[in-house]
Design goal:
The chain has about 450 residues and is α/β, with parallel strands linked by helices. It is about 35% helix and about 15% strand. Strands 1, 2, 3, 4, 5, 6, 7, 8, 9, 10 and 11 form an 11-stranded mixed β-sheet that branches. Strand 2, helix 3 and strand 3 form a beta-alpha-beta unit. It is rod-shaped and about 135 Å long.
């Protein structure tokens, strides 16, 4: 029962716990898997297995789950977990080194942790605009004021590509479907640092090509303002999937793509063997030598345990009592055969004289067995044992004791063969009453 309850509790926990970030409605694993399977796109999700060779990667898709990467020493102090805005913390140092090593498409955050936990969209689950700061420049004060949000409902946006941007694989006009579309205003945004690539009808940027300057180091990256164009819950809306697919193809230029789910820098200039996705075949190595001996021993132990449990199923058997019951049953059968033979079926003769000793042995054995049940190890044997039994019965039921003693004395070697059956039948009835007198239940084997 405890094992069943443990399994049920574990199953309930696995079903009810919130999904991991990358597999939740806010993650990007879904887009990577679909693009790889349906379009044979060379794309994979990177969770930190080994190093990355920048020369082999055409594009890094970097989803941000931290609205302010310049304030790193923070904790999730909000009492209401659904209102937590920082889902995965990242420092500006890590961010800069990531976009410096590989061409990167940065995806801004939009939703609080409640969207992941509840798996639903609601205006109260949007990150506060005042909490966001664009990953633009460590000295820049631009942030929440440049973020724009549409109405809290799904709507279609027509995007127009900047003719100056040379991305031939990206259509000039695209239509997407977004909930509370998140864009960047071009009025107050530093045009010298970011160039609009895709604009809405309100002349607000959804995709921009930006530059990042840190200690005289100049790095360019691409900035996507609304994550719902590419995350697990939004990529299936409207024409979002095709838009996201065309976008990453245009930026990668035929090279492999990774979706980066890490908060550390993984890169090397040395060419290494390419990391492959994990699969169930990787578990096969745990069943080869020398692990095979362990599994074989475990299987043997399980089989032996089940077999032994099956053999021992039921109460513990008292061998001494069992042997006594077998002997008693054999005696009863032999006595009953003699009894059935005796009354009037044949005339007494030499063979009939053999039934009397058998009946006497049977009566002695029955009295001895009752004495063993009543007195246990303190019982006496032989004539003394019968006297001990009759004395105890006298104290409980004097009349029954006298009747049983009389029936016992009637069965002597001189007892006529014709009255043997009647006497034995009376003796059995009195023995049954005696058993009940001592609190023993009826048992045909006794």
């Amino acid at each position: 029962m405890a094992v069943v309850l443990a399994v049920v509790a574990a199953g309930w926990y696995l079903m009810m716990r919130p999904a991991q970030l990358d597999r939740s409605i806010l993650g990007l694993k879904g887009f990577a898997n679909i693009a790889k399977k349906q379009n044979q796109l060379d794309i994979r999700f990177f969770s930190g297995q080994g190093k990355l060779n920048p020369k082999e990667i055409g594009l890094r898709i970097l989803p941000l789950y931290d609205p302010n990467i310049y304030q790193f020493n923070r904790t999730k102090s909000d009492a209401d977990l659904n209102k937590v805005e920082m889902l995965r913390q990242m420092s500006s140092y890590v961010f800069f080194n990531k976009i410096k090593s590989i061409k990167t498409l940065v995806v801004l955050p939009k939703w609080r942790d409640g969207a992941r936990r509840l798996e639903k969209l609601h205006p109260e689950l949007l990150i506060g605009i005042q909490s966001m700061r664009l990953p633009h420049n460590s000295k820049s004060k631009i942030g929440g004021l440049e973020i724009r949000r549409g109405e809290s409902k799904f709507g279609a946006l027509i995007l127009t590509k900047n003719a100056a941007e040379k991305l031939p694989k990206l259509a000039g006009t695209s239509t997407v479907a977004l909930y509370a579309a998140q864009t960047i205003s071009t009025n107050s945004f530093g045009i010298s640092n970011c160039t609009p690539v895709l604009l809405t009808e309100l002349n607000e940027m959804l995709l921009a090509r930006c530059s990042y300057t840190l200690k005289k180091a100049f790095v360019e990256y691409w900035l996507l303002s609304d994550p719902d164009l590419i995350n697990n819950h939004g990529v299936g809306n409207g024409n979002n999937y095709q838009f996201a697919l065309d976008l990453v193809k245009a930026l990668a230029k035929g090279k492999p793509i990774i979706v980066d789910g890490t908060t550390r820098v993984f890169s090397t200039s040395r060419k290494t063997s390419r990391e492959r996705d994990r699969s169930f075949t990787d578990l096969a190595r745990f069943f080869t030598f020398p692990f095979a001996y362990f599994w074989a021993a475990l299987v043997g132990l399980i089989v032996f345990t089940l077999w032994h449990a099956w053999r021992r199923r039921g109460p513990i058997i008292d061998r001494q009592e069992q042997e006594a019951m077998v002997a008693s049953k054999a005696s009863v059968i032999e006595a009953n055969v003699a009894i059935i033979r005796s009354p009037g079926i044949r005339s007494p003769g030499k063979s009939g004289a053999k039934d009397i000793p058998l009946a006497l042995a049977y009566i002695a054995q029955r009295l001895q067995f009752l004495g063993r049940e009543v007195f246990g190890s303190s019982r006496k044997s032989g004539i003394d044992g019968e006297l001990q039994l009759f004395t105890a019965l006298e104290r409980r039921n004097s009349s029954l004791s006298k009747q049983l003693k009389k029936a016992r004395e009637t069965l002597t070697p001189d007892c006529p063969s014709k009255t043997l059956f009647t006497t034995l039948n009376e003796f059995e009835n009195l023995m049954e009453e005696a058993r009940h007198e001592f609190g023993r239940t009826s048992n045909p084997r006794r």
